[in-house]
Amino acid sequence: MTVPHPGGQLLLSAVDLRKSYGSTPALNGATLHIRPGEIVAVMGASGSGKSTLLHCLAGIIRPDGGEVRYRDRQLGAMSDSERSALRRSDFGFVFQFGQLVPELTCLENVALPLRLNGSRRRDAESRAMEWLTRLQVADVAGKRPGEVSGGQGQRVAVARALATEPRVVFADEPTGALDSLNGEQVMRLLTEAARHTGAAVVLVTHEARVAAYADREVLVRDGHVRETLLADR
Ligand SMILES: Nc1ncnc2c1ncn2[C@@H]1O[C@H](COP(=O)(O)OP(=O)(O)OP(=O)(O)O)[C@@H](O)[C@H]1O
């Protein structure tokens, strides 16, 4: 299949994605193009297919049909280990809950992906500390995730997602468990950090207030990407 080119350089594209869970359709011909450094909010009602689209884009689940292309590579043509390596080197993830390893300190959590990518402990921890400082949570470096607030934990999770300087950050309801003040702060710091490193962000949210931090909003409805609102912010 030829990927229709919407103009400009593309980083990540989903074209005509289809995915069902048993007899439940989740994606029904979803197409979405992401450019380098672009922050895109994926909105839509509960059950519309937003998370499934994000998981397909990130190579976490395989669509039943259609294709996902990252730079010049088709994710469906890669082996599981190639896709895992790509996720570690080029993608970062922020979820709503439970993403930090409870036994590790916040510093060790942020250093972990750097260690997995081959950095030595001392280098990984010093980079992790820089990221905790940028996310304004340096003071919790030595604490375990269970000892910090929800907002602090999410900022640690953002530091961890960005520490490897990924090209794409996938964020699935990253503020869903936070009050509005903490949610705003996490979104401001996440988008500032992504703009600093040039990472694109695919942000799943159902909150307009959160989507307002994006360059562009798309709406998922019944497994299609129905509408693109170019919000020239
Ligand atoms: N693992 C699964 N097994 C079975 N059905 C699933 C699974 N994951 C998603 N679904 C179904 O697929 C459809 C799309 O789900 P998805 O989680 O992608 O939507 P969503 O827009 O992210 O929803 P929410 O906003 O509630 O998180 C829904 O009907 C959902 O019930």
UniProtKB/TrEMBL annotation:
SMART domains associated with the record: AAA
Gene3D superfamilies xrefs: P-loop containing nucleotide triphosphate hydrolases
Name of a matching Pfam family: ABC_tran
A GO MF label: ATP binding
Alphabetical list of CDD domains matching this protein: ABC_MJ0796_LolCDE_FtsE (cd03255)
Listed transmembrane segments: none
Keyword terms: ATP-binding, Nucleotide-binding, Transport
Family matches, as InterPro entries: AAA+_ATPase, ABC_transporter-like_ATP-bd, ABC_transpr_LolD-like, MacB-like_ATP-bd, P-loop_NTPase
ABC transporter domain span: 12-233
GO CC aspect terms: plasma membrane
Claim: Nucleotide-binding is one of the keywords in the record: yes
Top-level taxon in the UniProt lineage: Bacteria
Protein name: Putative ABC transport system ATP-binding protein
